[in-house]
Amino acid sequence: MNPHMLAQLLVQLIVIIGVSRLIGRGARWLGQPLVIAEVVAGIALGPSLLGWLAPDAMRWLFPPESMPFLKMLAEVGLVLFMFLIGLELDPKLLKGRGHASVAISHSSIIVPFGLGAAAGALWLYRTLSSPDVPFSSFVLFMGVSMSITAFPVLARILTERGLMQSKLGAIAIACAAVDDVTAWCILAFVVSLVRASDLAHAGLTTVFALLYIGFMLMLVRPFLARLGARVANREGLTQNVVAITLVLLLASAWTTEYIGIHSLFGAFMFGAVIPKEGGLAAALAEKLEDVAVVLLLPVFFAFSGLRTQLGLLATPEAWLTCGAIILLACLGKFGGSAVAARLTGLRWREAGAIGILMNTRGLMELIVLNLGLDLGVISPTLFTMMVIMALVTTFMTTPFLRLMYSPEEQAREQMVQTPEGPLPPSAYTVLLCVSHGQAGPGMAVLSRALAGERNEANLYALHLLSPDRALKARADGALDPSAASGGALAPLLGRAEKLGLPVRTLSFVSSEPARDICRTAQAKRADLVMLGWHKPLFSQTVLGGTVHEVMQEAGGTVAVLVDRGLSQVRRVLVPFVGSRHDRAALGLARRLVKQAGAEVTVLHVTSPEGAGTGRAQVEELFPADEGAAVKLKVVSHASPEEAALEEAKAGYDLVVVGLGAEWGLEDRLFGVQRERIVRDAPASLLLVRHPEGATVLAQTPEQARAQGTPQDATQPLGARS
Amino acid sequence: MHLGATLRLLRVDAGLSLRDLARRIGVSSAYLSRVENGVDAPPTQERLTAIARELDVPPGLLMDVANRVSPYVAGYLEDVPAAGTLMLDIARRKLTGAQLARVRAFLDAEFPLREVRGDEPVPPLAPLLSAERVVVQLSCGDYEDALDVAAGRLASALPGVDAAALAQGLRQREGEAPSQVGNGVSVPYAFVAGAAPVAALVTLARPLKVDAPDGQPLRLVVALVDGHVGRARLMRLAHVARLAGRGLADRLHGAEEPQRVLETLEELEALR
Q1: ipTM
Q2: Polar residues composition bias: which ranges (chain A) (predicted)?
Q3: Are residues A354 and A168 in contact, defined by beta-carbon separation less than 8 angstroms?
């Protein structure tokens, strides 16, 4: 290249970039992607407009001898660009998108491919091709060129419309990704077919291509993953790493070129195998994008524009043919994907929108067409027609999408995307509500037993400060509320630490402790709210005051621990007559058996008159294989309370008892009766209440077995009894 | 520097990718990324205006977040130096927000604006709150706990909405774009179909170590729930970020009663 040629090239670059940016302004004003502008700029600079208006100017600007340099620059730009496309292709898009996108993407390839191939075979081969082009190559190529979807243009349209996160956008982008990969594989095959002189060579090329793909996937990808992990951040991406990546990219492109499938395939493949986790892919894309997209890609567009000769379509028949090609292309792509989308259950509007999106061919089509022209598979006339087809299909996407899938429609779809989907399952969660320090150690011991050796529970300790106490603490000077809460939580945390139990603490000022306990329990999806017992101010009962309020408001099981020096949970008594509270108590005991290997005695009290069904019920709830740890005692007594009290004196660590009149336990704001079982039982007690309306605990044994302690903690507060 | 984090939050909420916004305002995505990460200096007024236009929020709001004097004001003060002395007078009197509001009311009455400004007023935060949705002096070990407490309060204001689902929604958004806007404030945000906008405010007794853009520990959480996508909610987000820049966390830090928090907030917001 002599200095004059360099000057020539620089002028060309200035003109190309300038004109495409200029037209780009207009395209943005029309709401069109920039690609359209760049392609139009290329065509305008070529023989179609500039060459037609001022042939001398075109000859001066783009003399034939400068074309090889321009072509080389365009090719390098394409290699970089295909690499970027590969980088954008996240394998996560390809898998796990479910049934819909698989079906849609398949039919959005097969239908247009079939139509294109059929048109090529039956009609275009005769009229627009020369006999020296192999029939099979031509037909295959027509099929591929019809079934292209422009992944990058699609992604850009989707982000511009804010559709990327929507269901529609996810399906469309996944389909486009699948389409791209498939189309490039077919294209690689076609190229190898055309380039190889005979079938044996073609077979050899295919074998090499497969070897290459295997090599990239088996060896290069793990290496890149390690490289990616090492340079996970932007600072890690030194110029050395960029150099390594670029060398590998060029080597990959060279390999595919040498094998006989095109260099673009190698660039794409290399981009695709770069790990998308970590920062490597994003950082590389950031570094290369501007050079590739702003500087080099317009050169490619200009180059293909220079080869597009609208003058070749001089006759009405030619324009008719062009129209027919456009119609076929739209029919295949739009029809194929829209019908498939409808069949997978999307509404017509959404299905139509998907069809329109998939019809975007944009620059990927141009790349394919240039390849075809280079290989001599298609004639310049057909090339021009297909370029027009690509332009038209890309151009119509945005307005049609707006028509089909208006912003209102979009808003409606987004409304459906509320966070109220099914919540992911979570571990067994206990909310420990501590108001005074002394209840803490017992709660820690019981939590240990509920969580088991492997800590299979989320434990939260909640301490609510009353507003005046928080103020006082502050007025006292040194103490800030967090220290004050630390005071109340300290005994619990101290014991928990000794037991190796992870507990997360939470404390804030609250004027309505009961409501805040319930709200927090709901937000944490607590399976059990455990309250510490302290002497209520106005009544004798355990179950008054805040405890009563919590029990009334909570959506899940609430338990009150009456701690009499609980230091281990070995022997547990469950008095049982069969109310829903009793069942909840039994459920907790069951968890104690499973997690801590506790020994549970179920005391079933029948009235002297009639034989109860208790044994059957208990056997149902505790299947025989677990029966060893559960002893069932049936006694007949006129007063269940008395019977339970008598049994409780027989050396138990913990009595788990459901609320109920039969045990002398009823929650009310100001109780006057004295709960004898609480007063007189020597063991620690856990008083359990299960709200009405929430899933009744252990309704069926299967359910009980499957879930441990099933209950609907996610039930809204408003649904309680 | 907290502008970058706010920009990212707004950009993600508007559904724009980094590259997309960069392309629209004509800068490189590398530059925009540096701005968002606070590595680069905050954008010039022209760029900030371009960003505001693309995000469809009033440019003045973003300028405030960036603590930049709006070009209007700068130009006016240059043209009419007497206005500068008036500003000095105001500064010398140390007028509070409430007093400034009275001055403004006087201005509105005496010199009504002839043309309607393009900027619609930014919706204030205080009306979205109530004493019931203000939690003071929370101490917890994890940011998620604060979100849960806020979700609990929010859920009581939204009939038929489950606190756990709401907490999940807040966390999900958190995964998409971190809600820390710097100055010790975070703005978690959830979408509930058809809901009227509400907010909950949580002050932390013990500052939490979080991954904040300016490295300041978290002292205040303003959780927002909205039933509509679009301009108003972006403006609300930006508005909270602006309040954060005006020292919201510092002012609310000592408050022990929800009522006191609301008063402070109203005073801060009296001049929007």
Answers
A1: 0.72
A2: 700-714
A3: yes
- Choose among B145, B153, B192: nearest Cβ to A504: B145
**Based on the number of CB atoms within 10 Å of its own CB, is A720 exposed (0-12), middle (13-18) or buried (19 or more)?**
middle
Helix (H, G, I), strand (E, B) or coil at A642: helix
Question: Would you say residue A575 has pLDDT above 80?
Answer: yes
Give the pLDDT score at A36. Answer: 81
Select from B6, B1, B121, B119 the least CA-distant residue to B53: B119
| Closest-CA residue to A100 (of A188, A151, A169, A6) | A169
For every residue of A243-309, DSSP letters joined together read HHHHHHHHHHHHHHHHHTS-HHHHHHHHHHHS--SSSHHHHHHHHHHIIIIIIIHHHHHHHHHHH--
Strands A571-576 and A599-606 come out as parallel
Running DSSP on this structure, what letter comes out for residue A626?
G
Chain A residue with CA closest to B37: the answer is: A234
Domains and CATH numbers, chain B: 126-269 (3.40.930.10)
Cα-Cα-Cα-Cα torsion A10, A15, A17, A21, nearest 10 degrees, comes to 160
- How many other CB atoms are found less than 10 A from the CB of residue A504? 15
pLDDT digits (tens, 9 = 90+) for A101-158: 777 888 888 888 888 888 888 877 777 777 777 788 888 888 888 888 877 778 777 7
The overall pTM is greater than 0.90: no
Q: What are phi and psi of B148, to 5 degrees?
A: -65, -45
Judging contacts by C-beta atoms under 8 Å, the chain B residues touching residue A460 are 145
A523 with B141: Cβ contact below 8 A = no
Angstrom distance (rounded) from CA A206 to CA A216? 15
- Residue B104, number of CB atoms within 10 A of its CB: 13
What pLDDT, in 10s, does the model give residues A331-388? 888 888 888 888 887 788 888 888 888 888 877 888 888 888 888 888 888 888 888 8
- Dist. CA A108–CA B137, nearest whole Å: 58
Tokens of A165: 């996160």
Q: HEC profile for B90-135?
A: HHHHCCCHHHHHHHHHHHHHHCCCCCCCCCCCCCCCHHHCCHHHEE
Residue whose C-alpha is closest to residue A518's, from B152, B161, B169: B152
Its sign, for the CA torsion A73, A78, A80, A81, is: positive
**Residue A165 phi, psi (nearest 5):** -85, -10
| Contact status, residue A612 vs residue A606, Cβ threshold 8 Å | yes
For Cα atoms A243, A244, A249, give the angle at the middle one, nearest 5 degrees.
95
Judge whether A399 and B146 are in contact, CB under 8 Å.
Answer: no
Q: Say if strands A457-465 and A684-689 run parallel, antiparallel, or are unpaired.
A: unpaired
Those residues whose C-beta lies under 8 Å from the C-beta of residue B100, and which sit 6 or more positions away, are: B90, B270, B271
Q: What are the structure tokens assigned to A311, written together?
A: 């003058």
Give the number of beta-carbon pairs within 8 Å between A and B. 141
Return the pLDDT at B120.
60
Q: Which one of B14, B19, B160 has the shortest CB-CB distance to A716? A: B160
> H or E stretch including B154?
helix B143-157
Q: How far apart are CA B19 and CA B24, in angstroms?
A: 9
List CB contacts (< 8 A) between B139 and chain A. Answer: 481-482, 485, 505-508
Report CB contact under 8 Å: B152, A522: yes
Sign for the pseudo-dihedral over CA of A204, A210, A213, A217:
negative
Structural domains in chain A, sorted by start: 3-310+317-407 (1.20.1530.20), 429-719 (3.40.50.12370)
